[in-house]
Amino acid sequence: MTAAAMRPLIPVEDSAASDAGSFAEFFERGRRKAYCFALHLVGEREEAMDITQEAYLRLHARWARRDPGREPTAWLYSVIRNLAIDHLRRRARRREAEVDQTLLRSPAMGPERTAEQSQMAERLWAAIRSLPAEQREILLLRDWHGMDYGQIAEVLGLSLGTVSSRLHHARDKVREQMRRYL
Amino acid sequence: MTTPSQHEEIRQMLSAYLDGELTQAGAQRVRIHLEDCEECRRTYEELARLQEMTRELAFAEPPEARMKELEKSLSVQAPRRLGWLFVMAGIVAWLIYGAILYIRHWRPPTVEEMIGSAIVIGFVLLLASVVVERLRQLPHDRYRRVDK
User: Fold this and answer.
1) pTM of this prediction?
2) CB count, 10 Å around CB of B115?
3) Which CATH class name applies to A113-182?
4) Could you identify which of A62, A89, B113, B147 might form a hypothetical disulfide with B109, taking C-beta atoms 3.0 to 4.6 angstroms apart as the criterion?
5) What is the CATH number of domain A14-99?
6) Cβ pair B70:A32 closer than 8 A
7) Contact residues, chain B, for A140 at CB < 8 Å
8) Is 0.90 exceeded by the ipTM?
């Protein structure tokens, strides 16, 4: 895709977090997703919780002095990602890092959620897990965490073009694996 | 008529189109192409379906007890920092004031002054021990180099 076809990078104002300036509100609203982001990166629940906790403590310590132009969710995710990378680097010495399949929670079965849908979710998660880490994190940041390209670029320190291109390749691969079920 | 290279170029734009991340002109190009190209239309629909499915994936919930613990810990951070700031500022001010008095009006200290000084010296030593302990732990702090 040509760069000209992409929207220019503009500072993204997060929901209410930067407006309200309330850390408690920011914590309450984002803690589950922040935990899942750490979980997607390290694949271990206990470590994911440690990382989430450390990241929130760091943000809290600097909250009053934060750059008002900086989007708090992207900031939080950057810190989580850096902590996770540090963790994975240490863990790689012990064994190969991988994303645990059991991270996918079995939703309560009900009329709105059939067994077939749960099976599809498992297939989809298997396809996402099989992606290279740099594609997987972009796909999840966009489609699960709901970040736009500007926020993803800020979290990962990438250009908009790279975000778009990696996302395109990630989706292509997932689609290739899933198309017989669609 | 779209050429194969144009078709491929637009196919690569479908993902950004789905996310609403194209310029108005880019989005218009894709829209027009989708009206004519069944293959791209199918791809787009599949991408949209997969995005929807990904959004609905349910992952493990964070341990609620740990989250509550973290919430409590965060709520005391600010007053704790403020408390430390006041303690340190008070001690420094007291020491400076004491030193000035000592220089300007030298005389043997009273019992009250000696007790006060003992408390201040005690506080300073406790503070110093916390700082020293932290400095000792620093090389083993696994997150010390992680910051942004």
Assistant:
1) 0.70
2) 11
3) mainly alpha
4) B113
5) 1.10.1740.10
6) no
7) 54
8) no
